[in-house]
């Protein structure tokens, strides 16, 4: 029986090298159709263990479901999505990424799937998002399973509205130094 990311222990952090990028592609339902070698090495999966599997195979239990609800709503509206994500490896370790997920359309405008490019986030960004995600998980634990992701997403959006920014602007702001050093931001 294959081990899945859900329900494993905390493990140790695996860090991407500053120059490394993780790249994956999925079909419209989120099943992996491509994974680069960096992803396979970091997550600890062989290609045959990934292709055709749901991308949430690497979901870490520390990630609030509300963050994924926000991601899917953004993507289904046709917009790209930036997030800080804690993923699980096959052996129970974890790694943080600054993820950029983009819808992929054919020439006729039909959704073909999603591209995701992930890079190492700043340590300060991780430190800033961890208490926010912890509060979202706490909110989710006090809710019914069906309503929990919406409730924690709404809390997150209200928190950021108080700060006068969107989730994407917040995430990009936390990582501005990393992106500027990579030549991604001006």
TrEMBL record:
Q: Where is the PAS domain?
A: 27-78
| Domain of life assignment | Bacteria
Q: Keyword set for this entry? A: Receptor
Gene3D superfamilies for the chain: PAS domain (3.30.450.20)
Q: Which Pfam families does the entry mention?
A: PAS
| Record NCBIfam families | sensory_box (TIGR00229)
**Descriptive protein name:** Aerotaxis receptor Aer
């Amino acid at each position: 029986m294959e081990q899945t990311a859900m329900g494993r222990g905390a493990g140790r952090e695996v860090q991407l090298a500053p120059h490394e990028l993780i790249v994956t592609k999925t079909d419209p339902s989120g099943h992996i159709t491509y994974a680069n070698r960096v992803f396979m090495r970091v997550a600890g999966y062989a290609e045959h263990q990934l292709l055709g599997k749901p991308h949430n195979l690497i979901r870490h239990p520390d990630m609030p479901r509300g963050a994924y609800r926000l991601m899917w709503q953004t993507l289904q509206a046709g917009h790209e999505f930036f997030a800080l994500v804690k993923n699980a490896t096959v052996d129970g370790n974890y790694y943080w990424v600054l993820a950029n997920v983009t819808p992929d359309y054919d020439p006729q405008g039909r959704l073909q799937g999603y591209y995701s490019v992930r890079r190492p986030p700043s340590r300060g960004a991780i430190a800033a998002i961890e208490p926010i995600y912890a509060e979202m998980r706490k909110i989710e634990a006090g809710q019914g399973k069906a309503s929990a992701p919406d409730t924690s997403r709404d809390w997150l959006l209200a928190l950021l509205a108080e700060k006068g920014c969107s989730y994407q602007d917040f995430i990009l702001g936390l990582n501005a130094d990393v992106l500027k050093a990579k030549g991604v931001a001006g």
